[in-house]
Amino acid sequence: MLVPSFVAKVARAKEHLVDLEAEIGRYAARHPYTVRETVQGKRKRKVRRLVFTADPANTDIPLITADAIYNLRSALDHLMSSLVPSSRRASVMFPVFFHGVWDPLVPGESSQRRKDRERWESTIKTLPAAAVAVLKSLQPPDASAYGEDSDILRIVNALSNTDRHTKLPVVASGLRDMRLQFTKADGTVQHAIANPEPFHVFTNHAEIHDLPYNAMDMKIQGVAVVAIALGVQKERRYITLPDKLTHAARVIEDRVIPALSPFVR
């Protein structure tokens, strides 16, 4: 039996995600971070910061991530093309807009939102009402709540758009489960947990507080967190790898495909 291309695309994305996890593991095993100490201000205050010493952008992580994203987005488009007449299959794309894109035009809204509403109408015009209802349920919330199942499609779409134009901005966003070891002035060795909350990420370049002024021989250990940085500095958000893409593959495979498969032509 021939496997539908949209199913095969998700399967290939999952293979890339296995490779991605292994590549991130190799990067993290290099212990690519340290504690940097500087003296600041008139009072000569010692400032210690977490600093990454190796950039994941210089590994294969961005390329493997791009391959996974391409196949996830392509799976959605292949699925969509299987729902429409053959004459439309070359031009149709899976709609990822916003909840309410089907509502009437709102006076004064942006040209992009007007364009999205027009594209929605063009996309669904040959679909049965039940298929349209499914697509409506999959549209991301109008005010993004990043993390919801429907919003994971927005993330895939945004990452796919980014990858079309530039290398994915993969960064080391911080350390999870960060632990410190240092020597006090009297020669005793002390251990400290810098972030006691489970799953808390101590961000790159963050200041490490509550260390003795004369602490020496500082050593640091933790789980390196690699992510894609999206947005400008003030509104930047981090798409953690491979977690978010693994979740996206699961949503597409377990929710999106089963919901729309009954309408495949």
Overall pLDDT level? 92
Oligomer: single chain
What are the low-pLDDT stretches, counting only 5+ consecutive residues below 50? none
Tell me the number of structural domains.
1
Count of helical regions: 6
Strand proportion, as a percent range, falls in 15-25%
Number of strands: 7
Structural class, by secondary structure, is: alpha+beta
Level of helix content? 25-40%
Distance between the termini: 16 Å
Q: From the alpha-carbon coordinates, what is the Rg to the nearest angstrom?
A: 23 Å
For the biggest sheet, the summary is: 5 strands, antiparallel
What is the general shape?
elongated
State the order of secondary-structure elements, H for helix, E for strand.
HEEHHHHEEEEEH
Structure overview:
The protein has 265 residues and is of the alpha+beta class. It is built from 6 helices and 7 strands, in the order αββααααβββββα. The chain has one domain (5-263). Strands 3, 4, 5, 6 and 7 form a 5-stranded antiparallel sheet that branches. Strands 1-2 form a two-stranded antiparallel sheet. The longest helix has 25 residues, at 5-29. It is elongated, with a radius of gyration of 23 Å.
Question: How would you summarize the topology of this molecule?
Answer:
Layout (H helix, E strand, L loop, with lengths): L4 H25 L3 E8 L4 E8 L8 H21 L29 H14 L4 H9 L11 H17 L4 E14 L5 E5 L7 E3 L12 E15 L6 E5 L1 H18 L5
Antiparallel strand pairs: 1-2, 3-4, 3-5, 3-6, 6-7
